[in-house]
Model the fold of this input.
Amino acid sequence: MTPTQRSFKRKLIGAWALSLFLMFVVFGFGAVKIFAQDALPDTEQTAHANAGKHTDPDIVKFAFLAAAIAVGVGAIGGGAAVGYVGAAAMGAIGEKPELAIRALLFVGLAEGIAIYGLIIAIMILGKV
Done:
């Protein structure tokens, strides 16, 4: 690998890290806004009418945005993990077929990352 390719690879990894950080910041603001709304005192009538649901459009907007980011980042991370682990697993199975169960177990664990993002999204949307 030439020094130019290494430099480009480092810049690409840095750009991915920065974009993931920014996505988590937006997700964090959405979650903070939702939970801060819970802390506000309600009157007894509105507390029974709303039953923990939020009607402020800004809160709902950030909740949907946070849920979408959670699922999106989880799916991207899960896809990348399955790609790398799956390729290594197929190579290992090609050399030693008795490693098939162990290798596919790691592929299944990598898929769990996407499930975590989906669970977080469901938890966020359950608050709205």
Q: What stands out?
A: Helices lie at 3-39, 44-50, 57-95, 100-127. The two ends are 50 Å apart (CA to CA).
